[in-house]
């Protein structure tokens, strides 16, 4: 479970409040999508969840562990796939996985799981090669493998489909669902509304650092219908069911944002 309580973050160099009093609870056993326009605060939130950034205010609990007070303990149960992974390029893929296993103090039997994941992602044949020779998609597969190899209780992904071929993206979706079926927590951000609509059990939409709406798709449609009834939107006016993309654009006032 992820519990975000009244969390705020301001970047002092430009006095930008990237996240503003965010409250959110992510239950285990569900794929949770975190959506928002560019600059909405998604990556800042994820960096606070993973301990890369510290919140200015509020508290973040990862399976009951306060990541600010007990960062090492919290990070042991987190698997994180960043939007742009950084590697030691001269290492082979296998050496990099061994390096990550050493960080988590994994025993030999536990390390074998990494190769099971690599096989599912069709990465096995490339593990002996240096990471510098990897394509963007192959690096993404290696990042996913490294994030999952210690069997984390919480799996956090920032734009995870970027660079993946359709087959690998399909495998990743299956891995995410399998983790949920095991009672673990899956939290990911994406700009691809079709992906979120198909695989997410619940979503949260953030705009200008603030939570706009959260819940399952039906709950979001109710919120959208309320705006329509209030006369602020024509989304769904034809009587058809609006897509997540249409709801997202309405709730975030996307046209007011710049890329």
Textual characterization of the structure:
The chain contains 9 helices and 10 strands. Strand 7 (154-158), helix 6 (166-181) and strand 8 (185-189) form a beta-alpha-beta unit. Residues 254-259 have low confidence and may be disordered. The chain has a domain at 85-151. Helix content is 37%, strand content 23%. With 259 residues, the chain is an alpha/beta fold.
Give a short summary of the structure.
This protein is of the alpha/beta class and 259 residues long. Helices cover 37% and strands 23% of the residues.
List keywords for this structure.
259 residues, alpha/beta, six-stranded mixed beta sheet, four-stranded antiparallel beta sheet, 37% helix, disordered C terminus
Topology (elements, then pairings):
Elements (H helix, E strand, L loop, with lengths): L1 E10 L4 E11 L4 E5 L6 H8 L7 E6 L2 E2 L4 H5 L2 E4 L11 H11 L4 H13 L15 H13 L5 E5 L7 H16 L3 E5 L3 H7 L2 E6 L2 E6 L1 H13 L14 H9 L7
Parallel strand pairs: 3-8, 3-9, 6-7, 7-8
Antiparallel strand pairs: 1-2, 1-4, 4-5, 9-10
DSSP strand count: 10
Based on CA inertia axes, which overall geometry fits?
Answer: globular
Q: From the alpha carbons, calculate the radius of gyration and give it in angstroms.
A: 19 Å
The helix tally amounts to 9
Characterize the main sheet: 6 strands, mixed
- Binned, the helix content reads 25-40%
* Order of H and E elements: EEEHEEHEHHHEHEHEEHH
Order of strands across the main sheet: 6-7-8-3-9-10
């Amino acid at each position: 479970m992820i519990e975000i309580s009244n969390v705020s973050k301001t970047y002092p160099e430009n006095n930008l409040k990237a996240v503003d009093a965010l409250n959110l609870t992510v239950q285990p056993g569900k794929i949770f999508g975190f959506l928002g326009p560019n600059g909405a605060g998604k990556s800042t939130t994820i960096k606070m969840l993973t301990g890369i950034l510290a919140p200015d205010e509020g508290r973040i609990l990862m399976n009951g562990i306060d990541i600010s007070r007990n960062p090492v303990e919290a990070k042991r149960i987190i698997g994180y796939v960043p939007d742009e992974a950084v590697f030691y390029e001269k290492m082979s893929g296998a050496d990099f996985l061994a390096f990550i296993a050493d960080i988590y103090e994994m025993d030999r039997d536990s390390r074998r799981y990494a190769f099971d994941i690599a096989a599912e992602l069709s990465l096995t044949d490339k593990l002996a090669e240096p990471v510098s020779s990897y394509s963007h998609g192959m690096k993404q597969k290696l990042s996913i493998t490294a994030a999952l190899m210690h069997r984390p209780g919480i799996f956090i992904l920032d734009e995870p489909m970027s660079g993946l071929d359709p087959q690998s993206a399909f495998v990743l979706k299956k891995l995410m669902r399998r983790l949920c079926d095991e009672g673990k927590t899956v939290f990911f951000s994406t700009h691809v509304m079709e992906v979120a609509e198909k695989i997410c059990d619940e979503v949260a939409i953030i705009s200008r650092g603030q939570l706009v709406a959260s819940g399952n798709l039906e709950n979001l449609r109710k919120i959208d219908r309320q705006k329509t009834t209030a006369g602020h939107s024509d989304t769904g006016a034809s009587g058809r069911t609006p897509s997540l993309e249409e709801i997202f654009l309405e709730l975030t006032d996307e046209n007011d944002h710049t890329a």
